């Protein structure tokens, strides 16, 4: 059964993006893909471009800044928070008719402390629906994760284009219904690991 319960607040509504910005996102996206390729290959092509050209904004993270939530701002600045990067990736995928959503949840990143419970989500990533399969993708960690000194980024040591169920020890959503896996992992189950 396909679960379609998502956080509507994170669903990119292309109608709120300015016409110019929407056009720029569409033109860029279409220039990156080969329409003869599968949707999966197209999504990976967009991901590859995005992770090599949009950076995680470490200064904004360290300053406690909030996401703009606007894909055009992320594209213009060339950097953003996890939510910004995930939302841009979602918008780019949607322009070529790939069903995509930004998910809010938790990750065990450099700020994670097993003795401090999560009080609110601390990360965002994207899910794609391609060929009747939900694919979890983390474009912000693909762009680079925060280094040990919290001063810059380092490239991810593993592929985060397709987050497999085995990697769910690092990622889990606020709501189990947003897992889009047959066997969701809840925060309480994850806390016990």
Helical content class: 25-40%
Tell me the name of the CATH class: Alpha Beta
Structural domain count = 1
Written as H for each helix and E for each strand, in order along the chain, the element string is: HHEHHEHEEEHEEEH
Strand line-up of the largest beta sheet = 5-4-3-8
CATH 2nd-level architecture: Roll
Low-confidence stretches: 1-11, 182-193
User: Helix/strand/pairing class, anyone?
Assistant: alpha+beta
Oligomerization state: single chain
Figure out the total of helices: 7
**First-residue to last-residue Cα separation:** 27 Å
Query: What is the average of the pLDDT values?
Result: 73
Kindly report the CATH topology. C8orf32 fold
The largest sheet is: 4 strands, antiparallel
Give the strand tally: 8
Radius of gyration: 16 Å
